[in-house]
């Protein structure tokens, strides 16, 4: 039987060694050892039991719409070039630009989805929800229905610099709309008002709270204790997302939260061109390294950027290495080397463990991260 790719000797995070057969963008077989005579592969990727392989990494909080100036980037720069096979743009565009964004994504290798901003203009300025007139319910619903395979949820930024004097009023509207459309809602929280306690009044099971370690007074801690509202939110099924960003990740808050038994469901970056180039974000693997430093297991971290991330936005055929699932995979090394890591409050630590993505398979195509897209091998055997 002819197939597109046969991956030999990949090491999973539980240290199992597996072979993976890929045909027509799908995983058709996963086994400890696939008989070499079973398939005639167009391309064989030999990992020799040395390289880690996982389901393709998914970053559910990025900003990668290239046409806006405030928070812009390019899907492949935050995606496949850093080992991420799927990115979700978190509200850069609203109803006015979602169509242009969708068309732009077609030229990239990285899988791209969007959380549509409830403000029709998207993030063209920091205060997109300063006027309730910026919410056009008709156009929002129309856009979601038109791009139903692209839009995976709604985004509402709930911090004082965004809503100005509107407090939770935009969130009330967002909740009603997302329930009518049967979509999850990602809520950004920062400086109050609105307070995190008030925000939780309008969040439901399956909604996503991002920037959970923001280190601001309106945060998840009351003194040194995790607020009871956070604990109750977890119990209600609200998803806690990292959303690192330029100003939204405190190592101290993250450690205190971990010590209290409150862990993130998903690890994401809130990446865009400035914090990708100048830090402190750089890429998803750097954010993952911070969780290794804090004592999380590699297996737990990988779950938070694969299975958990796919579940959070209902990507049905992604997030697992499983027969019938999309052939999206990340190949990476975990190496012992010192590296400085910095949070959003200029706190620096030295880690001894680095995660280095080496290659991806995205939509059934193998891409070596060290090469330009045009230089990647198409046939024969490749040893990563």
3D structure, described in words:
There is one protein chain. Helices cover 23% and strands 29% of the residues. It is globular and about 65 Å long. It is of the alpha/beta class. The mean pLDDT is 95. The chain has two domains: 2-54 and 323-383, Roll (Urease, subunit C, domain 1); 56-312, TIM Barrel (Alpha-Beta Barrel), CATH 3.20.20.140. The strands form four sheets. It has a seven-stranded parallel sheet with strand order 6-7-8-9-10-11-14. Strand 10, helix 6 (196-200) and strand 11 (208-210) form a beta-alpha-beta unit.
List the helices and strands and how they pair.
Elements: E1 2-11, E2 17-23, E3 26-31, E4 40-46, E5 52-55, E6 57-62, H1 75-78, E7 84-90, H2 98-105, E8 111-117, H3 137-146, E9 151-158, H4 160-163, H5 169-181, E10 185-189, H6 196-200, E11 208-210, E12 221-222, E13 225-226, H7 228-235, E14 239-240, H8 251-259, H9 273-277, H10 284-293, H11 298-304, H12 307-312, E15 329-342, E16 348-362, E17 365-368, E18 380-383
Parallel strand pairs: 1-4, 4-18, 6-7, 7-8, 8-9, 9-10, 10-11, 11-14
Antiparallel strand pairs: 1-2, 2-3, 5-15, 12-13, 15-16, 16-17
């Amino acid at each position: 039987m002819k197939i597109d790719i046969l991956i030999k000797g990949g090491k999973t995070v539980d240290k199992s060694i597996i072979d993976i057969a890929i045909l027509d963008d799908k995983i058709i077989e996963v086994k400890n050892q696939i008989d070499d005579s079973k398939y005639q592969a167009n391309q064989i990727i030999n990992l020799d039991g040395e390289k880690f392989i996982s389901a393709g990494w998914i970053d559910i909080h990025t900003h990668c719409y290239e046409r806006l100036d405030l928070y812009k980037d390019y899907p492949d720069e935050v995606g496949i070039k850093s080992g991420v096979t799927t990115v979700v743009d978190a509200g850069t565009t609203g109803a006015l630009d979602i169509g242009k964004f969708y068309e732009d994504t077609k030229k990239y290798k990285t899988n791209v989805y969007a959380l549509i901003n409830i403000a029709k203009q998207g993030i063209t300025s920091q205060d997109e929800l300063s006027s309730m007139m910026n919410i056009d319910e008709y156009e929002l619903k129309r856009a979601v229905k038109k791009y139903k395979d692209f839009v995976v949820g709604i985004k509402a930024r709930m911090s004082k610099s965004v809503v100005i004097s509107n407090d939770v009023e935009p969130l009330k509207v967002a909740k009603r709309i997302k329930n009518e459309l049967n979509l999850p809602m990602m809520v950004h929280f920062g400086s109050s008002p609105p307070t995190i306690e008030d925000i939780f009044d309008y969040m439901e099971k399956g909604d996503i709270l991002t920037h959970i370690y923001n280190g601001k007074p309106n945060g998840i801690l009351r003194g040194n204790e995790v607020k009871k509202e956070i604990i109750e939110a977890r119990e209600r099924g609200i998803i806690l997302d990292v959303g690192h960003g330029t100003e939204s990740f405190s190592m101290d808050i993250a450690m205190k939260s971990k010590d209290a038994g409150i862990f993130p469901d998903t690890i994401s970056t809130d990446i865009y061109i400035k914090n990708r180039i100048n830090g402190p974000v750089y890429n998803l693997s750097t954010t993952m390294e911070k969780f290794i430093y804090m004592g999380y297991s590699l297996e737990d971290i990988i779950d938070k950027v694969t299975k958990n991330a796919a579940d959070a936005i209902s990507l049905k055929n992604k997030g697992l290495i499983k027969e019938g699932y999309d052939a999206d995979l990340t190949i990476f090394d975990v190496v012992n080397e010192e590296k400085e890591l910095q949070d959003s409050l200029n706190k620096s630590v030295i880690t001894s463990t680095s995660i280095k993505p080496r290659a991806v398979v995205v939509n059934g195509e193998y891409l070596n991260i060290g090469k330009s897209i045009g230089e990647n091998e198409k046939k024969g055997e490749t040893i990563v």
